[in-house]
């Protein structure tokens, strides 16, 4: 085999390898269980470091529950709030806190919270995006202040990019 | 009695005393049926003395219904309100009236009442704490004015400390 | 006015007074809170004597919750079953066990349990009758065997006659 | 060292040992988040080894959701089934498969599934017990055959004992 052929084979191999990587990345339009666990654990770690007791929920691209954890002694009422935050964030691909600005009395989508068996429209719910920026799910955090919940949700959502 | 025997008895007494204290603390994680009855009856007595007709609900540490009474002629609609007040108070370990200050239009957790199959966020729901200050359940009172409901709930919640 | 007329008036007055008493008794077509407590306590005492852990619910003539107690360590799932047994018994003025004989596959009211937000059609729910035999509410017991539940419910229902 | 000192040290050691045991027993009334994670991961590992795709839910002693994971490509409909299996197992402290034997047409608690917002009465839900044998929560598995679900749930429930 001459050098040219060797080079050609090498190049084709490289192209296939690159394509394969791209294709692999392309089909990840839904969060995996491992990514969901990763988001849960990163969020939980952040909550523990900041002495906040939270419930953390992750939903997939279909807004269906993918993973959940309730930290010991966190609010019982936050189970449902965390799940609803995650679902709300995915239902409308939005930071739940931004949604809340539109749902107040006089707002353009006043009382939309009554749809979908109940939305939550204050901070703590965020879409989860993959490296290509595509939304693959969402995370909801409840139990701390709304600022703490949003900060913890942000850490969880970004953790899957590492 | 020689020194050895005296020492032995003293030590055994000490062990028993320490164990006894530890065990007492151990069993007070959840409200008992007798405590729940006590809270109901104290609240009902207070309502009768003040000529208020109320529904009274007690939930346990898991926010599950533990005890309930509806006074004759009290509002039928207050059955569910009293139960939801008790659950809300335990869901978020809070005086339901304080929760309501945060859920108004413009409030930081506006419309959270839509979560958990419906919360109640005006006064009349209170956590119940044991002598060690640990929350072991909650009480909800509905039927009077919100001030009356809160006052009656307070008497019910505190009654288990006597 | 002669003696005859005086007598007539006296007799009519007497009749009216007697009727009034009768009518007063007649208007108690709804269980009182004291009767509901009495039924709860009698049922609970019977359960304790037989070492059964149960939930006990009493509903009024309108099938609305009147009183409830969950014994320590009894089933969490029996909260709802006890309440539904009491409601079912009053909805159809029937021993819930008798209802169940009609709701089986092939039965004349197959799957009626799906109505009314869920009925319970096995033993443990019984109407509560006053001394005149009028149904004034119902009791539901859940946590033991169906025979135990029915026996305890019977004791609770009959207790208000004493 | 004289006899007195030896005795003193021995006694103190004994006290500490006894207290330690008592305290350990004290904190195991409800499943912890770490235990819930442990059960999830053990169950998931078993499912993967057996090429089964399942949803796994863990509830606490109050039957409230504690942890959850949905494996990639597992049934969407199994999210709710897994959660309801876990809740059912804790509601009645029972293997859900054993419950199902009693709820068939003609069974002594026919149609009890309609209570508690829907129970699941086939295998895959199991109480979780601590080392002292006390029920501290429950696990529900759904997605495989009922035999697989039960086997995976068993592994999850037992994992916390190690």
TrEMBL record, chains A, B, C, D:
Keywords: Signal
Entries under Pfam families matching the protein: HbpS-like
Keyword field contains Signal: yes
Protein's UniProt name: Heme-binding protein
Signal peptide: 1-25
SUPFAM superfamilies named in the record: GlcG-like
Superkingdom of origin: Bacteria
